[in-house]
Amino acid sequence: MKLLKFPVLFLILSLALFASEAKVGEAAPGFTLKDSNGNEHSLSDFADKYVVLEWINYDCPFVKKHYDSGNMQMLQEKYTGKDVVWLTICSSVPGKQGNFDNDEINKRSSDHNAKFTAYLIDDTGEVGKAYGAKTTPHMYIISPSGVLEYAGGIDDIPSADQEDIAKATNYVSKALDELMEGKEVEVKTSKPYGCSVKY
Amino acid sequence: MKKLTQLIFLVVFSSLILSAQIVRTDYVESELISEVESIKPGEPFWLALRLKMDEEWHTYWLNAGDAGLQTKIKWTLPEGFTASEIHWPYPEKIYLEDLANFGYEGEVFLLTKITPPKVLEEKEIEIKAKASWLVCKVECLPGDAEYSLKLPVKDSTPQTIEKWQQAFSDTRFNLPLQNSDWKIQSTKNENAIKIFLIPPQNYSSVNEIEFFPYDGSIYQNAADQNFTRTEKGYELTIPFDDFKVEDPDTLKGIFVSDIGWRGENSERALEVIIPFTHLGNDEAAKSSGIILALVFAFLGGIILNLMPCVLPVLSIKIMGFVKQAGEDKKRILKHGLVFTFGVVVSFLLLAGILIALRAGGQELGWGFQLQSPEFLIILSIFLFLFALNLFGVFEIGTSLMSFGAKSSGKSGSFGDFMTGVTATIVATPCTAPFMGTALGFAMIQPPFVTLLIFSFLALGMASPYLLLSLFPAWLKYLPKPGKWMETLKQFMGFPLVATVIWLAWVLGLQTGSDGVISLLAALFLASFGVWIYGKWGTFNNTKPVKFIARVIALFMFIGGLVFAMNTTTNNNLPENFNSKNTSGIKWEKFSQQRLDELRSAGIPVFIDFTAAWCLTCQVNERVAINSVNVVKMIEEKNVIPLKADWTSRDDEITKALANFGRNSVPLYVIYAENLGEPIILPEILTSGIIIDALQKIN
To answer: Is there a contact between A161 and B140 if contact means CB atoms under 8 Å apart?
Structure first.
């Protein structure tokens, strides 16, 4: 077992254990990040609004599944149209997959015709770790009162195959719709699927 | 001519089916392979998706962990065929910074069992599959490939394809076991679960146990599982994921241990599906393995006294006591202590030799002495002379008096010691089968513990005499000394002669009739020698006569021994043995390969791990295994009986025994597809036990 061969590595890793601050049903951790145009955004700027957090890595096949199919842009357009703030966050650290300079980000975003509110750069991985973001995509919904309402996958069919999108139940739109109708969110957590976040 | 066409057809055909369609995609080489060359209607067979990842790249287990995706196979099967889910070998934990994934690096074989219909018209069938996976280093790429496999349909039992035999066998070994003798419990609180793992009493030390959950989003996959050793076993603590998708009521997943779940070097993965229990009276955790093993060893030692090998020697020892009844208490105690010392020393010596030989890399088990023809010859001569001594053919000089317990009570300590040694040597053929599990346990312990267990076995065996020496007053309950003792002594010679016959039979199986003839010649010379010794070598003859008689006796004794040793070679004739005991059951010779073949074909198997020198085995075979009902049942259930004959050294069988955590025979195992785990029958069999077990086969 590899594990036995690298007890030291194991020890170090276990010390650096994943301890996210975010919990569903509790206040979402605050943050301030720069977007791909150099503007700062804080979570607190969006009090009184629903906020969606989407973890992204344009080179990840699972992200491609939802962007190449137009699924992600459709969601972004639909809900930003309903006054939802959609923050796309990239936690790829410099040198790792998905970490691009601003020009490249903006080029790719416009190529994809992305409709998010802002593309935030978290190249220290701090915010990602605070939210316990594991995969790209990994989705979060925060209520106008700042409470984390949903954390998990974008839908219920973990695959990189675009054809599965039509068959899947989209947890993000389901939860947003429920919240806006004043209902309790039925599925508050689900298993996120995708590539690992490149911390 | 017809043969030639057949041959050409066969060559062309087999090259067709064997030509692997290796598909190369990004970072992965893959193919669909079959374990068998042909299939038989109604008989399930196994296919494997072979994935070979480039260096540093990995694909995923059924639960990919924090990220990633499990590999999937979509089958397109001929009508009437069904495919099982993927049987996943246990994965490794692959860390990516703070995240952990479960998957495979290098090469992996994902097994699927295909069941064909009972009736098949076609001469050949085609199976198609589409596999899809995610292959990752740090970055990830989805991959997929399609395969097609043509397999001929034959009525004969399918042959395995040699090229992949090892791979299938290795992979099967890495599949999680469905159950084990371990006791596992788990409790949970808000933040974490705690798992208690308690090994069976006879278990060697485990250095690492890791839990791989079936669900990737309940537990923190990258967390240290806090493996700790406790008094009773081991513990793991696993924190829940902050976003756990559900509050589980059942622990589902596999445990992977560094040494295995059925003893050292056994299967390393174990599937566990257990509901969480409430903390408190963890009933399961009460035993402390070694102490219990010591208690059993002691009890086993006491019971050994009743075994047919030991009884003659010990009845003589009892008579010694009877004679001693009048003696001074201190002397009696000394006799008892020295005898005990003799037993302990010889047991430890035997155990020590065994440990040393095993440390030297030899595949040996308890009872190994009896696998050596030389040992059998020496033991036979020894016992035969002992019998002659009891018959009164000769007496041994004063210094060895108590050997035959003819002593007037003034015997030396050496005599007591030697009686202890004799008792042990004679007892070994009986210990091996009788103490199977305990000795198997003893052998996998650190040497210190092994020796401790053997000491307790020895103490148990000597304890009745030690007690009598401590409380000589009890001796008055034994009959008074008298003429009956002489009669009993002579009578006890006969069990010894019978034991010699048995040993000669064992020798015959190892060496053929030549060895037995050599032994008989040696017995003849030795008995002639002691007769001369008894007649002219004792003190009522003149000195020169005595001297010459003794020289002749010694010469004949040694000559016979040397002759027998030199003319005996271990010829290994297990076939002979197999055919010998086949009054009812049509045994096949055991081999791991044959077993794997039968198991993969889903044919039920009964394995008899036995040896000619194992008395219990012989008794079991006669009274239980070869009974009419069992023979009938084995035929009815289409069970293939395999005999693993350990009479002579056989590394393959030693390894097979080790797979069951055993180190000795007898061992009876039943494999059947519908049972999942093999059934292990008790060491003492009745036909009822076997029939009950066989009835569980579908």
So the answer is: no
The answer to whether A132 faces chain B, any CB pair under 8 Å, is yes
CB A161 within 8 A of CB A178: no
User: B608 pairs with which residues across the strands?
Assistant: B643, B668
**Whole-angstrom distance, CA of residue B521 vs CA of residue B516:** 9
User: How far apart (Å, rounded) are the C-alpha atoms in residues B138 and B51?
Assistant: 18
Question: How does DSSP classify residue B86?
Answer: -
Structural fold of domain B2-172: Immunoglobulin-like (2.60.40)
Question: Between A and B, how many CB-CB pairs are < 8 A?
Answer: 110
Nearest to B243 among A19, A158, A189 (CB): A189
Q: Which chain B residues are Cβ-neighbours of A192 within 8 angstroms? A: 217
CA-CA distance, B624 to B620, in Å (whole number)? Answer: 5
DSSP three-state, residue B57: coil
- Residue B108 has a CB neighbour count (10 Å cut-off) of 24
Q: Let me know: does A125 contact A197? Beta carbons within 8 Å.
A: yes
CATH fold of A47-196, please?
Glutaredoxin (3.40.30)
Distance CA B68, CA B57 (A): 12
DSSP state of A60: S
Per-domain residue ranges of chain A: 47-196
Asked if A18's CB is within 8 angstroms of B256's CB, the reply is no
Cα angle B66, B71, B74; round to 5? 145
The full set of domain ranges for chain B reads 2-172, 183-275, 291-485, 574-695
Rounded to whole angstroms, the Cα distance separating B607 from B641 reads: 6
Query: Checking DSSP bridges between strand B640-645 and strand B605-610, what pairing results, if any?
Result: parallel
User: Is residue B656 a contact partner of residue B644, using CB atoms and an 8 Å limit?
Assistant: yes
Supply the CATH classification number for the domain B574-695: 3.40.30.10
The tokens for B671 are 């494999």
Under 8 Å between Cβ of B337 and B469: yes
Cα–Cα distance, B221 to B226 (Å, whole number): 13
Cβ A160–B142 below 8 Å, yes or no?
A: yes
**Residue B148 vs residues A116, B125, B532: alpha-carbon distances, Å:** 45, 10, 83
How is residue A96 written in tokens? 């790792």
Q: Which residues contact B257 (CB under 8 A, 6 or more apart)?
A: B206, B208, B209, B210, B268, B270
Give whole-number Cα distances, A120 to A27, A87, B363, in Å. 20, 7, 65
ipTM score of the complex? 0.78
- Residues of A within 8 A of B105 (CB-CB) are 2
The DSSP 8-state label assigned to residue B362 in this structure reads -
Enter the pTM of the model.
0.52
SS3 A22: coil
The structure tokens 């973990």 sit at A158
Query: Contact B134/A160, CB-based, under 8 Å?
Result: yes
Q: What is the C-alpha to C-alpha distance for residues B420 and B406, in angstroms, rounded to an integer? A: 16
Q: Which residue has the tokens 């939860």?
A: A175
State the 10-residue block means of pLDDT for chain B, 698 residues long: 54 47 90 90 91 93 90 93 94 87 95 92 92 88 90 84 81 84 84 88 85 91 88 88 84 92 82 72 42 79 73 70 69 82 87 75 61 80 83 62 41 74 72 58 70 86 83 71 75 81 81 82 88 77 78 82 69 41 73 89 90 72 81 88 84 81 79 84 81 86
Torsion angle of the four alpha carbons B587, B591, B594, B597, in this order, in degrees rounded to the nearest 10: 140
Residue B483 vs residues B472, B476, B494, B531, B671: alpha-carbon distances, Å: 22, 17, 18, 24, 57
Best CA proximity match to B90, nearest among B217, B210, B176, B216: B176
Residue with structure tokens 């994934």? B101
Asked whether the beta carbons of B197 and B261 are under 8 A apart, the reply is no
Q: What are phi and psi of B269, to 5 degrees?
A: -115, 145
